[in-house]
Design goal:
Low-confidence stretches: 1-6, 770-774
Radius of gyration: 48 Å
Shape: rod-shaped
Bound molecules: ligand C2E, magnesium ion
Number of helices: 28
């Protein structure tokens, strides 16, 4: 059952994971989360800082910034190029406007010094397929571009002017131009975009001023020797780029390409898109849901998953990997949100606030979701007199009382399988196949559940009847109602566990013809009694007998009292029955007295008859008619849990008591007779239910219960009767425990008056038990 609930939860969790996954996939497809990704990337860019290789050096062509003539700048450039050639630079990328000046001689010199560099010289300018004009508008003078390879310095910026990736090339008018960064790392093979690694400190890329270089300063020459050099001056097309690392601020495209090249060299700058991160997260989540066997394990799993995501965030920042994390984060957040909503609903919509148990709406929901509803049994336990009990309890104690009942019904502290409707009904769902003897199982369960509950050092009664629906109706609501109806129809003493199934609906079990024959049996006084002896445990002497109603139907044979008494109650003939049994019992008492065998005859009367004076009149009349001695009569009050008004019941008992009749509380311990009743009402005898009395030899718990009931009776100055003892070993054990009276099959079965008299005539000084001795 716990397993079943767990599977249910599992299926729901998987569904939530799938929904979160589907939404995350859609969100990645429409790239709506890109701003979030960018925010995360910006954050990552600020976390770590690694030094660049130093292999790439920038020569800043500041001459272009001043308002000086093209010729003057070209002279500075020529000087720089000559020094680069002299110092043995590995490569010279010219990313500075190459324009013709007025002095032709200077133009020629520039042309020559570029040509002199040969293959080492590369010319870069903004060339893009994405720009509206296709090719950059600012062209170099063609004469300077003649001898060198042309590359593109174009990079795409996002709306915040950040650059997150640099393509390997640009194709314009069928001509492919390599990207500037790519030619700076010839060893870098892959033909795919690089994602600039901002953990590499852009500000540490060496920069030299063009005039310092042109002056031939030896330190400067050393700095460019066998380096790849970018001569960088801004053209009109070059846009400034924002760096997210928090240090460099705005940089020109040349520096961005230098960083991209450093990234390629460092082996970082790979991209892990949502096509990778979202499914990976989903798979991990699903595995976690499937693998975890308990809430605890699952919570640890969630913790690991969240920690993993944070670790990935930091590791990616450190390694300079561009990972799309917003989408998987949204997946996890969506999942968590759904779980939180479900939990909230479970807690509020589906939970009873007082008992903190799932309520009947939850029961309904769970049954609706159940595939094999036909194989389930719905058990409803009804707690008697809950309102009266709660009137004496504080709010927290009420919850505690309800939770303890649930623990008992669950047979453990895991109450998750027990539902509570907020009032007197509890419910559970069992698998039919697991309980071949359902009746027996539930009777046992009920006995356990009916133990008094200790709250704030006070023992509180629990009286429970159980209703079961094991029909094959597939509608959850029908089945719940039918189990509740069964619990309402169950009767403490006669039928504490009431099962409704397809084959044996109650009306079928008790058909109309049987009812009319019961009526006839009542009117023709054919309800008889059998007497079951009670003996004094210590002496073994016969002291009395309990009268048990018997009815034999011509067709159906012996009908168990449980059944016909229940039916009498339902059709309002209980008084009729009691009258017959009372008369027969009282005349049996007279017969015994006349034969010199005075004995106390106990008559069972249901507590529900103790609501008005009819029972008093009935007894008075019976005493008159039979002439029995009230001192020889005892009334066994059954079903005391159904007493709603103790004061009234007490009044009635006192009236009967004034006639000289004493009372016994029947079935004590299983909820039908309980402490409440014992406290409020005047009893002289306590009958320990056979559930416990008969289990003392096998159960230590039963021994403790029976022992304490015996001492309870002693302290109250009333006698205890252990009933339903069916073996002698149990008898001896109970006797050694100090029990007063005993009754049960091992002593004698319920028998006719004449048989009882015969037995009694055999009884001499050593008592009825002599047959067991020697
Ligand atoms: P109860 O008053 O607790 O009666 C004891 C029941 O236990 C009787 O069942 C009796 O036959 C049975 N019993 C006695 N010794 C043993 C034993 O060693 N082992 C086992 N397994 N059972 C034993 P019975 O006669 O079927 O009566 C069932 C219940 O019906 C009674 O329980 C009582 O609550 C009710 N009942 C019987 N007669 C009347 C009656 O005249 N009026 C009312 N209101 N209820 C009655
Ligand atoms: Mg009885
Ligand atoms: Mg009993």
């Amino acid at each position: 059952m716990g397993q079943w609930i767990a599977n249910k939860g599992g299926a729901l969790r998987l569904r939530h994971a799938m929904i979160a996954f589907a939404i995350a996939v859609v969100l990645s497809a429409v790239t709506i989360l890109r701003p979030a990704d960018i925010a995360l990337w910006s954050l990552q860019s600020k976390l770590f800082s690694h030094e660049p290789s130093g292999e790439i050096v920038l020569v800043t062509d500041t001459s272009r910034d001043f308002d000086i003539s093209i010729d003057n700048s070209n002279v500075a450039l020529i000087g720089a190029l000559e020094q680069l050639e002299k110092a043995g630079a590995k490569q010279v990328v010219l990313h500075t406007p190459l324009r013709e000046g007025d002095v032709e001689q200077i133009n020629q010199r520039l042309e020559r010094s570029i040509a002199l560099l040969g293959e080492k010289a590369v010319i870069a300018r903004s060339i893009s397929s994405e720009e509206p004009m296709g090719v950059s508008t600012e062209r170099n003078a063609p004469r300077f571009e003649k001898t060198s390879k042309i590359v593109s310095s174009y990079v795409k910026q996002d709306f915040l002017r950040f650059v997150w990736w640099a393509d390997p090339s640009q194709t314009v008018n069928a001509t492919e131009y390599s990207s500037m960064w790519k030619v700076l790392v010839p060893s870098y093979e892959p033909d795919r975009a690089i994602y600039p690694d901002y953990s590499i400190a852009v500000r540490s890329i060496p920069e030299i001023d063009i005039y310092a270089l042109a002056s031939g300063d030896p330190e400067t020459l050393k700095a460019v020797s066998s380096k790849r050099v970018i001569v960088a001056g801004l053209g009109r097309d070059d846009r400034m780029i924002k760096t997210p690392d928090g240090h460099a601020g705005l940089i020109g495209p040349a520096k961005l390409h230098a960083l991209a090249a450093e990234t390629a060299k460092a082996g970082s700058g790979q991209f892990f898109g949502s096509m990778i991160t979202v499914p990976t997260t989903a798979v991990l989540l699903v595995l976690l849901i499937l693998a975890s066997k308990s809430n605890h394990q699952r919570r640890i799993g969630y913790g690991l998953l969240a920690t993993g995501a944070v670790i990935v965030f930091f590791v990616a920042a450190d390694l300079g990997l561009r990972v799309l994390l917003a989408e998987p984060a949204v997946l996890l957040i969506l999942y968590a949100a759904q779980r939180a909503t479900a939990n909230w609903r479970r807690r509020h919509l589906y939970t009873d606030p007082r008992s903190q148990l799932s309520n009947f709406i939850a029961l309904h929901r769970d049954l609706e979701a159940e595939d094999n509803l036909r194989d389930r049994v719905i058990v409803v336990a009804k707690v008697a007199r809950l309102d009266a009990m709660f009137a004496t309890l504080r709010g927290s104690e009420q919850g505690e009382y309800l939770r303890q009942i649930a623990n008992r019904l669950a047979l453990s502290n895991d109450r998750s399988g027990v539902y509570h409707d907020g009032g007197k009904y509890f419910a559970m769902v069992l698998k039919k196949a697991d309980y071949p003897d359902l009746q027996g199982h539930l009777e046992g369960l009920r006995a356990i559940a009916c133990q008094a509950i200790m709250i704030s050092e006070r023992a509180l009664d629990v009286a429970i009847t159980v209703g079961v629906d094991q029909s094959s109706d597939a509608r959850a609501s029908n089945r719940i109602s039918s189990a509740i109806a069964a619990a309402d129809q169950a009767r403490e003493a006669y039928r504490p566990v009431f099962i409704i199934s397809d084959f044996e609906t109650d009306s079928e079990a008790w058909d109309y013809s049987l009812q009319s024959r019961l009526e006839a049996a009542l009117s023709e006084n054919r309800i008889s009694i059998k007497l079951q002896p009670k003996v004094d445990m210590q002496t073994g002497l016969f002291v009395g007998a309990e009268a048990l109603a018997r009815w034999t139907d011509k067709e159906r044979g012996e009908i168990p009292p449980n059944q016909f008494i229940l039916q009498c109650e339902r059709v309002g003939r209980l008084d009729e029955l009691t009258k017959r049994v009372m008369n027969r019992s009282l005349s049996a008492s007279c017969d015994l007295a006349a034969a010199g065998q005075p004995a106390k005859i106990s008559v069972n009367v249901s507590a529900i008859q103790f609501v008005d004076n009819r029972i008093v009149e009935l007894i008075e009349k019976s005493l008159l008619e039979t002439g029995a001695n009230p001192a020889n009569i005892m009334i066994e009050l059954t079903e005391t849990a159904r007493i709603e008004n103790f004061a009234r019941a007490r009044e009635i008992m006192e009236q009967i008591g004034s006639l000289g009749i004493e009372f016994s509380i029947d079935d004590f311990g299983v909820g039908s007779g309980n402490l409440d009743a014992l406290y409020h009402l005047p009893f002289r005898e306590l009958k320990i239910d056979r559930m416990f009395a008969n289990s003392v030899s096998t159960s230590a718990e039963a021994r403790k219960i029976v022992g304490s009931l015996m001492s309870l009776s002693r302290e109250m100055g009333i006698s205890s009767v252990a009933e339903g003892i069916d073996n002698f070993a149990t008898f001896e054990m109970l006797r050694d425990m100090g029990g007063d009276l005993a009754q049960g099959y091992c002593i004698a079965r319920p028998q006719t008056l004449s048989l009882l008299q015969e037995t009694l005539s055999l009884q001499r000084g050593d008592g009825i038990l002599k047959k067991y001795k020697g």
